[in-house]
Design brief:
This protein starts with a helix and ends in an 11-residue tail after the last helix. The protein contains eleven helices and eight strands. α10 packs across α11. β4, α6 and β5 form a beta-alpha-beta unit. An eight-stranded parallel beta barrel has the order 1-2-3-4-5-6-7-8, surrounded by five helices. The chain has one domain: Alpha-Beta Barrel (TIM Barrel), CATH 3.20.20.
Length: 322
């Protein structure tokens, strides 16, 4: 799962310059190339580093360039792709591939706060499932394996228990669609205290229970460490409990939702907890960088790798055939 960043750094730069057009884009590349060379991922790393592209400034090509120069291995989309023509799909895939960047996730319900596509209301289920079908089609076009799904907001007049039951039933039906397409849905809890007032699923513990109740390997948990900390405090015990069901972790510090280390969250302990469990999925940066974006990502991803690998169990010895 590891991309050797240092070895391909110059190749990425030249390929990116060949693909990107315009003086502004070349200026971005020139600036990025002047940053310190990113550290290569440790050879024993099992985790794929990623970044949510909405957190970076510029055009999509510029965001991909910054991600690549920072040594990130993959990227995640929200709804950027919905306006793309077939030609643009091909072009953006080509640009990402020229950098050695993967795309690992996209959002399944665009404008989910404005349309009846919640998981927690049975009356919205057809809309939710139609969004899942559309998102699967986009995922197939883009070579993406994971689709983020949201519970939606609290529904007036419905009990918590009724909304939970609807969320699980919606998850089961959507997971069947995902299984047919060989993709994975990842359920994301959010905080309602600061960022998403009125959101239903505000606990990774409840999200974990929903994943267990759906009981389908194509339905997993997106553990956003920032949202869990803001809503429920120190996430360490919940991370340990949820680990077997987590496909993606999202990273931002609190308060502020900026770079790890700018807030109060215990990142060394969090990352070492993930490392001790031999987690082998994605860790995606989803914070608003302070200062230079490339330098910020280099620092954050390098520290994440260092802490995770310092606590990771050694690889099993290779047994040679006699």
């Amino acid at each position: 799962m590891i991309v050797e960043v240092r070895m391909h750094y110059s190749r990425r730069s030249f390929l990116g310059i060949a693909v990107l057009a315009g003086a502004a884009r070349e200026a971005v590349l020139a600036q990025a190339s002047q940053q310190a060379a990113p550290a290569a991922p440790p050879k024993q790393a099992r985790i794929t580093s990623s970044v949510m592209l909405w957190t970076l400034k510029g055009t999509l090509e510029e965001k991909l360039a910054k991600s690549a120069h920072a040594g990130v291995q993959s990227t995640e989309l929200v709804s950027e792709h919905l306006a793309w023509s077939e030609a643009e799909v091909a072009r953006y895939k080509r640009v990402a591939q020229s950098y050695g960047l993967a795309m690992d996730a996209l959002l399944g319900q665009h404008d989910w706060t404005k349309r009846p596509v919640t998981m927690v209301n049975p009356d919205h289920r057809d809309g939710f499932l139609n969004d899942v079908k559309d998102s699967i089609a986009w995922a197939k076009k883009l070579g993406i394996q994971q689709i983020i799904v949201m519970s939606g907001n609290l529904q007036p007049g419905m009990s918590h228990e009724a909304q939970y039951a609807s969320m699980v039933e919606s998850g089961k039906r959507a997971a069947d669609l995902a299984a047919e397409a060989n993709v994975t849905l990842i359920l994301e809890p959010l905080n309602s205290k600061v960022d998403h007032k009125g959101y239903y699923l505000t606990s990774c513990k409840e999200g974990l229970q929903a994943v267990k109740d759906v009981d389908n390997p194509h339905f997993r948990l997106l553990f956003d460490i920032y949202h869990e900390y803001v809503q429920n405090g120190n996430p360490i015990s919940t991370i340990n409990e949820a680990m077997p069901y987590v496909a993606v972790f999202h990273v931002a510090d609190a308060p502020g939702r900026h770079d790890p280390g700018t807030g109060k969250m215990p990142w060394d302990e969090i990352y070492k907890t993930i490392g001790k469990a031999a987690y082998a999925g994605y860790i995606a940066m989803e914070y608003v960088p302070v200062g230079n974006e490339v330098e910020s990502l280099i620092k954050s991803v390098t520290q994440m790798r260092k802490d995770v690998n310092s606590a990771s169990p050694p690889p099993a010895p290779t047994v040679s055939p006699s």
